[in-house]
Write a structure and sequence with these properties.
The chain is an alpha+beta fold and about 130 residues long. The chain has a domain of about 90 residues: Glutaredoxin (3-Layer(aba) Sandwich), CATH 3.40.30.10. It has 5 helices and 4 strands, in the order E-H-H-H-E-H-E-E-H. A 4-stranded mixed sheet has the order 2-1-3-4. Strand 3 and strand 4 form a beta hairpin. It is elongated.
Length: about 130
């Protein structure tokens, strides 16, 4: 009996600002940790962000974990920083002026924090495949 082909996964791109932490090469990180300065440097970088940026990043990470648990391999998530060259171009292409903006299969977009609105787009994408 022939096996049924698996539908293509939903491609979800997320344009969102997020805190960035800079790391050095593995050897340097190991030396910094051995010297006791690695942790404090990374902690200083993280605390330099305003509380609302960290809260939004945590909220988005929680939401994306929930989507991953719900959809599993049927969903491929890619986060793009709008300040990167790629993110800037995607913001122009999809007319994103606020973040987070979710792009489903390079077609449908949703901007905001309402899970039900994004869920409708994802469900629609599942039925189109």
């Amino acid at each position: 009996m022939p096996s049924t082909p698996h539908p293509a996964p939903i491609r979800l791109q997320v344009l969102a600002h997020g805190p960035t932490d800079f790391f050095h090469c593995a050897q340097c990180e190991h030396l910094f940790d051995a010297a006791g300065i690695g942790g404090p440097v990374h902690q200083e970088i993280q605390t330099a962000y305003p509380a609302e940026v960290l809260e939004d990043a945590d909220r988005l990470a929680t939401w994306l974990r929930e989507l991953t648990a719900q959809y599993g391999e049927r969903l491929q998530i890619r986060i793009v920083d709008p300040q990167s060259p790629e993110g800037f171009l995607k913001s122009l292409r999809y007319r994103a002026r606020r973040y987070p903006t979710f792009i489903v299969n390079c077609r449908a977009t949703y901007t905001g924090w309402e899970p039900a609105a994004l869920e409708r787009l994802l469900t629609s994408a599942l039925h189109q495949e």
